[in-house]
Amino acid sequence: MIHYPKCDNSLIRLSQSQLNLLETCPPQFKKIYLDHLNFPVSLESQRSLNWGNQFHQLMQQHFMGLSIDAVLAQYSNLSEVIKVLFKCIVEKHILNSQFWTEAEHYITFKKDNYLLTAIYDLLIVKNNQVQILDWKTYLKPNDKKQLESDWQTRLYLYLLAETSTYSPENISMTYWFIKDKYKPQYLSFQYSQNQHQQTKSDLSKLLNYLNYNLYDINQDNNNFGHHKNCKDKCPYHDYLCLKKTSELTFMTE
């Protein structure tokens, strides 16, 4: 039996990716974050991941005031992407030396038995307004509502409101999509007090659900089952059900 931390005396770190997976597919959440079993990463996915990590690192260095010219000189394709993006960011957010910025801002917030965490690619503070910027190395999605309901958007806005003196109405978040190197696109979300209260309520429900499952699994009960609508919404449903059927067939042979 794998021993899981009891929810009454252990502080468990949770990020937006974990909250998204817990809400989408509890069995997959258990498999990846509790059993520590992951799917093998394809060569193409690994290359994309490496490129994204390099891009984020260069953006961090630039906004920390460090020169990235030597690196860009070696990678002309990456240089074009970043130069166009810088121009768009300055125009959109009206950046100048009077504004305070911080790259890779790490934040934590204790809620019940959990430590909620976020890393902001860039924070921009001007006057009484604070903006969260996040870099995405894929194309701008067509469904803005889906991104708005994503736990990255909700958690990042929520945590900043909870850990700062800024009211929700003075907080916003902008995603920059740089897959098209000649025309970066963006989606912005303005926060509000009503959204903050809704996120607080939804987050409490999700953490209570996690509490229940962690307690139950420590009692040797099999939990973290599929949601009722899992088949329609979960990308892992068919894989996990097929895998479970195969395991049962093997055990009975």
From TrEMBL:
Source species, domain of life: Bacteria
GO molecular function, one term: helicase activity
Bilayer-crossing regions: none
GO biological process: DNA repair
InterPro entries reported for this sequence: PDDEXK-like_dom_sf (IPR011604), PDDEXK_AddAB-type (IPR038726)
Keywords: ATP-binding, DNA damage, DNA repair, Helicase, Hydrolase, Nucleotide-binding
Domain PD-(D/E)XK endonuclease-like: 13-238
Name of the protein in its database record: PD-(D/E)XK endonuclease-like domain-containing protein
